[in-house]
Structures are given as C-alpha cells and as structure tokens.
UniProtKB/TrEMBL annotation:
Record carries keyword Lyase: yes
Xref: SUPFAM superfamilies: PLP-dependent transferases (SSF53383)
Keyword Membrane among record annotations: no
Keywords: Lyase, Pyridoxal phosphate
Segments of skewed composition (Basic residues): 48-66
One BP annotation, GO: carboxylic acid metabolic process
Protein name: L-tyrosine decarboxylase
Obligatory cofactor(s): pyridoxal 5'-phosphate
Native source organism of the sequence: Desmophyllum pertusum
GO function term, MF aspect, one: pyridoxal phosphate binding
Length: 1012
C-alpha cells in the first residue's frame, strides 16, 4: 500500500511569528490552577490509605492555494487573545485537560502517571509487609526468566511499532468519526485503577470503583437535569449496550401490568391487593387494575407501572422476595414470549418507533429482546435530518386506531452522521396528547453523542476556580442554537437516556452509560430474585446486560467529572470551542466552490432559504454565501465574538452538534453514480485504514455516509435537487462527514488551511473520476540511494486536463540490473524520465495510488533520456514500486497570484537532499536541484531523517516567486550556487539557513505551459 498524499505549505503561511506563544506551554494562571486541581483529585481518589475521601491580512474567502493543514508554530487559540496577560484566560485550562496533539503536556502526564503506578506498587509492598517475596534475585538470574523477559520486551516493541499505524485521533487533522483525544484526567483515572483490576460486577469485586461508578453516573444524571436522589444510572461498554438495555426495560415495563393482572386474579396470596387501582388519562379517573382492559393495561404511564412492584406487595402483606417469586410465574420475561402471548391472546406485534437516522444498535436491540426487526418502525426526517413529528403523530394515531402496542419512541439527540437533534419537545407533547386518547409509551433518548452538550447550559458551582466572563472568552452557550437548547432542557423528561462518556466526554473506551429518570425502573431488569439493585446498592451485575465490568472505566469517568466539571466552564467550554469550529468549518464548506469552478458543494444541512440582512439594523439583504464570505471568513475570533449580530448568525446556521457534512457534484452532471464516485474518491484519499502506515501522508482524516431514500420523506429528493442530480430514481447520495471534536482548531488561519486541503482533495477526486487515461512522465533525480530508490517530479501541464497536477514521489527499483543500467545512463545524460508504458494508459491518481489490487506490487515504466516525444525509444523498461508520494496537488484556477519568493519542496534522505520547484499558476516552471549537503537546521540525525522523508516547503530568499522571463522565454532563476532558504522545522521552529546547489538536474519552462 503506497503512502497517501499531503498538501504543501503555502508561502503565505510559512512565517509564523516566533514571538507567538502556544497556550499549551504557557504557565498561565488557569493552566497552573487546573494542574494543581488534577493532582489533588488524583491524590484524593487513588491514595490507597483513603477509601473515598501572520496575523496576516484579513481575507474574505479561504485561500485556495496549497497550504499545510497545520501551520507549525501557530497558536491554536486566537493570537491576540493568547498574548494578553491581563485576563484569566479560562480557555487555557483546556490545555491541561489533554496531552496535546504534539504531546505538549507529556511531562505532566508522565509524572502523574508514574505517581499513580508508584502508588499501586507501594501498596503491594506494604500489604502484609512480612510476607516473603516470590520473585527473588535467584529467580531473576534463571535463564528461563531472562528469556521470558527478553521475549516480553521484544514483543512489546513490535506492538508499539504496530500501534503507530493506528488512527491518530489526538491530531487536529482528525475530523472523522465522533471520537478524538481522551482527556488527561480520564486517562489518569483509568491508568491509576487498571493495575488494581477491579470488577464492578459486585461490591466484593470492586468496592471502591463500584462506589465510583455510582457517583460518576449520579453526576451524569444531574448533568442532564435529573435529581440524583430520584434517578440512577450505571456504566456500560458503550452506547449500543445502553440502547439495548433501554429497549429491554421498555418491553418488560410494557407487559408488566398484564402479568400483574393475571397474578392478582389467580394467586390467592395477592387477594388483599385486588382492589389496587390505576389511573387512566383517557377516562380521567382510576379503576381497579383487575377491571382494566388489555389495551388499557398496555398503555399505562411509566411512573404508574414502576410503583406496582412496591405498592402491590405492601397491600398484600408480602415481602419483596415472596412477591417476586409469585410474579415469576406470570411475567413476559419469565415465561417467554410464546406462553405470555398465548395466555393473553396477544395477536398484534408491538412496535418500537425511531427516526430514520437511528443507530444500528436499535436493530440489534429489537432482535435480541425477541421483537424482531420488522417491529422497528422508522419515521422520516425533515430537511434538517430531525424526526418529522407531524408524520410521527400520524403514525402513532394509526397504532392507536388499530390497537398496536407502542413499546417505545426513540428520540435521537445528536445523530452521529447527520449531527441532528430530534424535536424532543414535540415528542413529549405528542405523548401527553395521545395519552389522553389511550395511547402511552416509554420515551428513550439516544443522547450518546448529545448528552454532554447539556454542560453548556449548566452554571458552574460557586467558587469555581476558573471564572469566565464575556470579556475573557466566548460564552459557552452562545454556540448552541435555540432548537438544541430547548431539546436539552427537556431531556430530563425522558424515561431512559443513553450517555457516552467515551464520545463527547473524551473518556477512554469502554465508557457508555444509561440513566433512568426513575431509579426504580431498573428493578424491571433484575434476573436474580435474591438481589435487587436500588440506588445505592453496590451490586451492579445483577441488572443490566453486562456481568464483569472494568472498574478502571468508572475511575476515568469520575476523575474527568471532578477535574473538568460538568458545567459551562468545564465540558461546556471544551464543547463550545468545538461548536465554534464546526460553525466556521460549515461556513467554509458552503463557500468552497467558486462561481467559476466546475463543481458545486452542498451541505446536508442547507443554509436557510431567502436572504440575510447585511447588518443588524439594515433593510438591505444579500444571499447567505455572499454574507458569509464578506462577514465570517477572514475575520479574527475577536472580531466575530465582539459582533453580536454575527454570533447570532453563526449560532443558528450549520450543524446541531459539531458535524458539518457535504457532498460534491460536477456542474451539469445528473448521474448520482458519478457524484457518489467523487465522494468515494475524496473519502479514499482522506481515510485511514488498519492495513496501512500513514507515513503522515493523510493531511486530514474524514469519514463518509449515504443519505438514503425514505418512502415518507422528500429530504433525499431536495438534496439531489440542490446538487443538480436527477430525482427520477431513489438511489442514495454519499456525503463527507467532518466531525469537529477537538477544541484546538479555533483560529481562522487554521480553518483556512482545512478548507484549502479539502479544495485540493475535491479537485483531485474529480480528476480521479473523470480524467482520460494517459501516459505520464516523471523526471528522476540522478542518484539511486542504498534502498534502490530515486526521487521523481511529475512533468505536469497547466492546459491538459489529465496532466494538471504537481507531484513528487519516491520510486524503488526491483532489480539490481535495472539499477546498474540506470546508473550507467545517468552518468552520461540527464535528466532520466520514466513514463508508464503506452499499452497501459492510466489516470495519474490510479497510477500513484491504486489500491484495488493488494497483490499489485509494481508499475512498469519505460525509461528515456529527456522528456519523450512520439519518436522517442526507451533505453530500458523496468518494474518500479511507488513507495511514497509526499506531494499530489491539482493545479487550481483560483491560484491567481505568485508567492513573494520562489517555493520549493526540500525532500530526500540523509544522503542526498533535493529541491523540487512548486508551480503556482500558468505560466510557471518545473525544476529539480541537488544540494551539496543536507541543509543545517533540520535537527539531530533522527529529526533530519524525519523531515527529509516527510518533505518540507521552503522558500528561496531573494528568488522571485514569479517566473523569470528573458526574450519571451522562462529561464532558470538560479544564477548563483549559494542561497538562503527559509522553512519551518521541528516543533514549528522557523529556520533560515544556507544551501549550495551542487547540480541542476532539470529545468522546464515550456512543457508545463504548452497547449495541446
């Protein structure tokens, strides 16, 4: 698998201020306070003796040049705000809550981690200190001990190397799934507990961590607005398990009254309770439960049912154990579906209702609890990907008229693909309305993604150590739109709620959770007659799906709760910064395509219809895209934050919860297959698989999904219309997902880089799909290195569509004889040019990156002296493996200005360093230069090898960015052997150093600009 692409650094971004200081390394008051707080909380929780005690010119639109995704040395926060020392900087605390994308907090994290491990090791030594040791010095000297230790070390090193192929969730480059870096306190809590290996299945398996789980989930209940004393929750392996549990409890709850009625009528031990009454909203009165109809019993409200296991045995004069033994003969979950339905003559299958954006776990749930996939009824979504509650009400009325039991209605509070929040307010109102007509059901909120956004609405506790005012930073709740705010405020009215600390809570896996509005709901899941989990009991394994549960997960969640805080100044601040990023990125996506481009970009959530006022008190209106280009893009954070009108605008547009999505189509194309092919090409170039080592060639990591048709919804049709696609068929449309779950991407320059990367990827993807297959020429360097590799530059052309690319790559010979022939020829003549054989014309992308055939190890190239013509004859044909492609850029008509200085790519190995000229716009030139030695300033030997292997953009000071023209021809601008180059090196340090040209291998100012 060949390494993926990256995008080079624009010279406009090459000079970050060396005075600019990164908040992650600053000793600001908020940073210091937060670190102290982490230390105190960690000590309190895990002491074994204590059980629980440029600021460049403003730009109106994104740079369309080729820029790096991460401008080294740039502050992750707004520079103006970062350099102010007279404010508290509450956002700086966020810097202590993560290790940092460049491991900026490595020392702090390692020290705290070592403290946690030492604490555990010290406890082992002090536990019955007079017990003799087992691993003695004599044992350590045994040969088998040494062999085993060596094997462990070797295998661990192999594993560590393999893990470097993992997805870099910690990076600001990651914009894929709903996942990002894990918080330092969550990691420390997990690590501090993992050596203790506590099991939260039962109190005796993990007394401390079980209490942590109860406390942590109590915090989560309060976070979503539940009262701690009335509610309860517990951790799960993930949101899927929580969702399955919610359907399980809803099913048991639905059928409980029928089983109880049968028990009251048949069991003499319950005769004293036969007068037990239930309230029927449709009648506005109570009746004895034994007199209720089957349909009435299937539609009692949740709280009425939850009381029954307590009220009935009290009336009957029985203890809980005896009552449960009686009920085991009558309940659905005890006697099974067939027997229960036969006894009660139930012939109509019940249903579970969810929006069409439901998570796959609900399909698993209805299957696991025995309801079947057909019982999952989906409600279409509106243009904002939110449940269409008008259709929901009609569907529920149909169930009412046909007496089909509704077990549960599921509200998605933050879909993980469309980023949508269902209108929970309306769903609750519909239940209230229909309950008066005789239809009732549980409401479950799948807030695995969205629950933590409630922190943006919660005030911090009094005396919070990190005060925030509008002057000191952004107001967290400013970036929740009105719709999401209103839904989160009624989240506490749901019967069950799924929460995922390992999503927007930044906790390590596994850390899902389920919260119950009424703590006694959990009683309906108990499978043991001996022990029931009521809030406060320590036996968690008797209810829920899981048995053994990692105590470490509970420790991680709890420490994160305590250190970060479930309020505006804690998780609210993190998510508000992420929200700001998502809104700005959404603005970039809607403006990505220019009027002169051959493609269009449409976000899944469209901009509002109509026009927007140009100002708060203006009657003049303009279209939304123009408004965004004029007022949002290119502004600093301060300029936006100080403008209430713009902040209100940002608040209401874009995604509900951090995930702007979009699709791309070629103007005039109506074929959905071609549109989907472009999206697939974008995804393939910006995805990370488990089988490849990224080599840092994926400049931005995204994911994708497909918008499918629903028989009751016109959402897909409207999306197709906006993209210009035919609506005659029902084929789904693919789209790109860009999740903004990192709080670092808050500077406008940074967002500008992301937009430039995506624009280049879109242009490349269109070429991947539409370019005409052809032969492609690559000019090589003149030295074969020890790995039998040569470096090459693609001989592109501004005017020929299939050749409108700039690329640099590393090719490897597979035969020593071919190396010998190459060396013999290159000593006589240069440049040597490689061209894929004429019998196999290909698109450039397919040639460089074709991954369809995993067994294909090489490409066949003809070798020429000089650029070949029709009459040229190759001096050899050889198989070459394409090892690395550090640059693959599509020429862009939006690049309308030359840089101030000539831009080159410094690329090579520790033996030879080369400069490859980067063309900007027509006309320009291509050039390869070998230097006498590797430039100074690249760091030590290891760092030097990394930078040369990665490739770095450098400007040649004193050499103009525009081509030099003499007598109407573009000529070589390098007239001297010595030059100063400027580039950004290790850790973002700006380097200016001297280079000496040893050999000019190739210069071309004609072929690049030649018409067909």
């Amino acid at each position: 698998m060949k390494n993926r692409i990256t995008t080079p650094l624009s010279r406009r971004n090459l000079k970050p201020s060396l005075k600019q200081q990164n908040l992650l390394s600053r000793g600001g008051r908020a940073v210091q306070t937060s670190l102290i707080f982490i230390l105190k909380q960690a000590a309190a929780m895990f002491n074994p003796r204590k059980k629980n005690t440029r600021k460049g010119k403003k730009q109106k639109q994104p740079r369309k040049g080729k820029v790096s995704m991460y401008a080294h040395g740039r502050s992750v926060f707004s520079r103006k705000r970062a350099l102010q020392d007279d404010v508290v900087k509450p956002w700086a605390a966020v810097g202590t809550w993560f290790i940092g994308p460049k491991a900026e907090n490595a020392d702090v994290f390692k020290n705290l981690m070592v403290d946690a491990i030492d604490s555990h090791l010290n406890f082992r030594q002090s536990f019955y200190p007079c017990d003799p040791p087992y691993v003695t010095e004599e044992l350590r000297q045994a040969e088998s001990f040494k062999i085993s230790f060596a094997r462990m070390k070797t295998e661990l090193e192999k594993m560590q190397k393999d893990m470097q192929k993992s997805v870099p969730f910690f990076s600001t480059r990651y914009k894929g799934h709903v996942n990002w870096d894990t918080a330092v306190p969550a990691n420390l809590g997990y690590i501090a507990s993992i050596l203790w290996n506590q099991n939260n299945c039962a109190a005796e398996g993990g007394p401390v961590t079980t209490s942590y789980e109860i406390e942590a989930t109590g915090d989560l209940c309060e976070m979503i607005g539940l009262k701690r004393e009335d509610s309860m929750g517990h951790l799960t392996a993930g949101g899927s398990v929580a969702n399955i549990e919610a359907i399980w409890v809803a099913r048991n709850l639905k059928y409980y009254p029928l089983g109880l009625q049968e028990a009251l009528l048949k069991d003499e031990q319950l005769r004293k309770a036969r007068g037990y009454e239930v309230y029927l909203p449709q009648k506005g009165s109570t009746i004895p439960l034994v007199n209720a109809t089957q349909w009435e019993l299937l539609n009692l409200d949740t709280d009425s049912i939850v009381k029954m296991p307590f009220d009935v045995p009290e009336l009957a004069g029985l203890d809980q154990g005896s009552f449960r033994n009686i009920m085991s003969n009558y309940l659905y979950e005890s006697i099974g579906a067939q027997e229960f339905c036969s006894r009660h003559m139930l012939t109509k299958s019940p249903c579970v209702v969810a929006s069409s954006t439901y998570h796959v776990s609900f399909l698993k749930a209805v299957t696991i609890v025995g309801l079947g996939k057909e019982c999952l009824v989906t409600v279409p979504v509106d243009k904002n990907a939110r449940m269409d509650t008008d259709i929901l009400e009609k569907m529920l009325l149909h169930k009412l008229l046909n007496e089909i039991p509704v077990i549960c209605v599921i509200s998605i509070l933050g879909s993980t693909e469309e980023s949508a929040v269902d209108p929970l307010e309306d769903i609750l109102a519909i239940r209230t309305k229909l309950s008066k007509k005789g239809l009732n059901f549980n409401i479950h909120a799948d807030a695995a993604w969205g629950a933590y956004f409630s922190c943006m609405l919660r005030e911090p506790p009094k005396g919070d150590i990190m005060p925030s005012t509008e002057e000191e930073g952004f107001v967290p709740e400013l970036f929740l739109n009105r719709h999401v705010t209103n839904q989160l405020k009624v989240l506490n009215q749901c019967d069950t709620i799924t929460v995922d600390p390992h999503k927007s809570g930044f906790c390590p896996y596994p850390a899902g959770a389920i919260c119950y509005r009424n703590k006694n709901l959990n009683n309906f899941l108990s499978v043991s007659s001996g022990v029931v989990y009521y809030h406060g009991d320590y036996t968690l394994g008797d209810v829920g799906i899981e048995g053994s549960k990692p105590g470490a997960a509970a420790s991680g969640v709890l420490l994160a709760n305590k250190v970060i805080g479930l309020h505006k100044n804690g998780y609210g601040r993190i998510l508000s910064e992420c929200m700001f990023t998502s809104k700005i990125l959404y603005c970039y996506w809607v403006c990505l395509a220019e009027d002169f481009d051959n493609f269009v970009v449409e976000t899944t959530k469209a901009l509002p219809s109509g026009k927007v006022p140009v100002g708060p008190n203006s009657s003049e209106k303009i279209d939304y895209v123009t408004f965004i280009r004029n007022n949002i893009l290119g502004k600093t954070n301060e300029e936006l934050a100080e403008n209430d009108f713009l902040m209100a605008f940002l608040r209401e547009i874009g995604p509900d919860t951090l995930i702007p999505c979009f699709s791309v189509n070629i103007r005039g194309n109506e074929d959905v297959n071609q549109c989907n092919a472009i999206i697939s090409a974008i995804f393939n170039d910006l995805c990370h698989t488990t089988t490849e080592e990224s080599e840092q060639r994926i400049p931005m990591i995204v994911t994708s999904s497909t918008m499918q048709d629903h028989k009751y919804s016109s959402t897909l049709e409207h999306f197709k219309e906006r993209l210009g696609l035919s609506t005659k068929n029902k084929d789904g449309v693919k789209y790109i997902i860009t999740t903004c779950l990192d709080p670092w991407s808050s500077s406008m320059d940074f967002m500008d880089d992301l937009a430039a990367i995506m624009r280049n990827t879109v242009l490349n993807a269109i070429g991947t799909v539409t370019d005409t297959p052809d032969c492609h020429s690559f000019v090589s360097t003149d030295v074969v290195n020890a790995d039998k590799e040569v470096f090459v530059s693609y001989a592109g052309n501004f005017k020929q569509t299939q050749h409108q690319y700039f690329a640099v790559a590393r090719f490897r010979f597979l035969s020593d004889d071919d190396v010998a022939t190459f060396n013999a020829t290159v000593q006589k003549s240069t440049p040597i040019v490689l061209r894929n054989i004429q019998s196999e014309p290909k698109r450039l992308h397919d040639l460089l990156f074709n991954d369809s055939d995993e067994e294909r190890l090489s490409e066949k190239f003809d070798f020429f002296v000089g650029l070949p013509t029709e009459s040229s004859v190759p001096f050899m044909t050889a198989d070459m493996k394409i090892v690395d492609v550090p640059r693959y850029d599509h020429f862009d008509v939006a690049d309308d200005q030359y840089p101030d200085s000539a831009t080159y790519i410094l690329y090579g190995d520790v033996g030879n360093a080369y400069l490859f000229h980067t063309p900007t716009k027509d006309p320009d030139y291509l050039q390869i230069v070998r230097l006498t030695e590797v430039p100074k300033g690249l760091g030590d030997s290891t760092e030097k090898a990394v930078i040369l292997k990665q490739g770095v953009d450098a400007e040649l000071l004193g050499v103009p960015g525009a081509p030099t023209v003499q007598d109407g021809k573009i000529v070589d601008p390098l007239t001297d052997p010595k030059y100063k180059i400027n580039f950004v090196g290790i850790q973002g340090e700006e380097v200016t150093t001297g280079v000496v040209v040893q050999k000019k291998i190739w210069f071309d100012g004609e072929v690049l600009n030649k018409s067909q």
